[in-house]
Amino acid sequence: MIKKKYLRNLLPVALVACAYSQPSVAVLDFAANGLPAYEVETLVERLRSELPNTGAVRLVDRKMLENILQEQGLQQSGCTTAECSAEIGELLGAEYMISGSIGKLGDSFTVDMKMVSVTTGAAEKAKNLTFDGTTGGLLIEMQILAWEIVDLKPPQALILKRTGAEGGEKITVAIMDFDPRGISQLEAQTLTDRFATEVDATGKAILVDRRQMMEVMEEQGYDEAGCTSEECAAEVGALLGVGFMINGAIGKLGDTYTIDAKMFEVATGAAAKTKNATYNGPVDGLITEIEILAWEMMGLKPPRTLLQKRKGTITQQNAPAPKTPLAAAVRSALIPGWGQLYTSNALGNDPLAR
Questions:
Q1: 242-261 pLDDT per residue, tens
Q2: Is the Cβ–Cβ distance between 296 and 278 less than 8 Å?
Q3: Cβ atoms < 10 Å from Cβ of 262
Q4: Count of CB atoms within 10 A of residue 209's CB?
Q5: Where in the chain is the domain with CATH 3.40.50.10070?
Q6: DSSP 8-class letter at 320
Q7: Phi-psi category of 312—alpha, beta or left, where left has phi over 0 and alpha has psi -120 to 50?
Q8: Going by C-beta distance under 8 Å and a sequence separation of 6 or more, which residues neighbour residue 351?
Q9: Secondary structure of residue 131 in the 3-state scheme
Q10: In the CATH scheme, what architecture does the domain 2-163 have?
Q11: Residue 313 and residue 110: Cα distance in Å, rounded?
């Protein structure tokens, strides 16, 4: 009994000692060459978040790093030399500092980084990369670099993501707040946030951080509440560098709620997918419906656990298929007059055309 109690008391101490046996590392913001600063910040943040997953290093808190730099009158992106990195690392009590740059030349991205020993000021490890692909793919490369900079082999799961073997390349998406119609702006924003969270949960999309989107809109003099047109959303999407934008509206008519969502390609402005639903039921059930809609917008079947939470009644509709001359000709060949009826205004009453 005494031995067991002794071991229980010793275990937390052993775990703490193990954690502090790892070398401490601080990551400076990388210099941006030909890329917006916010994109580089996002990429470096992905590197920071992956480093602790390696189990090889202990990451110095970003806030502590910013406080030290502020006290020294420096900016992270301005501390690019090994001497500056070592000096800041010494003030932080870190053993290593990681700094670098991310650039874009034509359609290629370049990443250069080095890990400097605070004690000696020498570069212990350097990595560089030239990458041809999307920013979504570059995020995965930053995760892989996090393992390689500490001399470890990246996990197989990351390698699969790089090759696309895990299930296809992800798309980059930004989601505008859905337009409120008959509900408050706060309610619409809450539902939009839940929609965005669930889109991310599908694993099929890389979402642009809402804060970054708001910064871009402010720089362009846009108010999100006033940016409801597809033209405005497409312009914001182009500035963000995403492939797709999603916008929509949530309304209330009596006891009935309506949800209309549209995903369109930024480059062409063409609608990639539209989804709309009419819902009757308790308000909390509307949250479940917006989550289900997120999976369907990504072309995926919602999880069974999510469908089991469904309340009330729901009617989902997709945009009707366009009428084509070929379809009319085929109908006329089968039944004389059917093609003419198909192209007429009476099509809605034609049960065979559905």
A1: 889 999 999 998 889 999 99
A2: no
A3: 19
A4: 14
A5: 2-163
A6: P
A7: left
A8: none
A9: strand
A10: 3-Layer(aba) Sandwich (3.40)
A11: 52
> What is the rounded average pLDDT of the residues 143-149?
94
**Angle made by CA atoms 54, 56, 60, in degrees to the nearest 5:** 95
> Is pLDDT at 314 greater than 70 in this prediction?
no
Distances, alpha carbon 95 to alpha carbons 28, 44, 82, 151, 270, in Å? 14, 19, 13, 16, 51
State the SS3 of 56-100. CCEECCHHHHHHHHHHCCCCHHHCCCHHHHHHHHHHHCCCEEEEE
Residues 6+ apart with CB under 8 A from 59: 24, 25, 26, 27, 48, 51, 52
φ/ψ of 21, rounded to 5, equals -80, -15
Q: Strand 313-317 vs strand 271-280: parallel, antiparallel, or unpaired?
A: antiparallel
The DSSP symbol for 350 reads: -
User: What number of helices (H) and strands (E) belong to the chain?
Assistant: 13, 13
Contact call for residues 321 and 310 (beta carbons, < 8 A): no
Question: Where along the chain do the CATH 3.40.50.10610 domains lie?
Answer: 171-317
Phi, psi of 254 (to 5 degrees): 65, -120
Instruction: Name the percent of the chain lying above pLDDT 90.
Output: 24
The span from the CA of 309 to the CA of 286, in Å, is: 11
Question: Can you give the pTM of this predicted structure?
Answer: 0.45
Residues 273, 284, 271: CA angle, nearest 5 degrees: 10
Check residue 217 and give its pLDDT: 83
User: Which tokens in the block code for residue 216?
Assistant: 């871009």
* Alpha helices for the chain (secondary structure H): 2-20, 37-50, 62-71, 82-92, 135-148, 156-163, 185-201, 210-219, 230-240, 283-297, 304-307, 325-334, 338-343
Residue type at 31 in one-letter notation: A
- Distance, in Å, from the CA atom of 26 to the CA atom of 85, rounded to the nearest integer, reads 9
Is 98:89 a contact under the CB 8 Å cutoff?
no
Q: What CATH architecture is 171-317?
A: 3-Layer(aba) Sandwich (3.40)
Residue listed under structure tokens 């002794």: 6
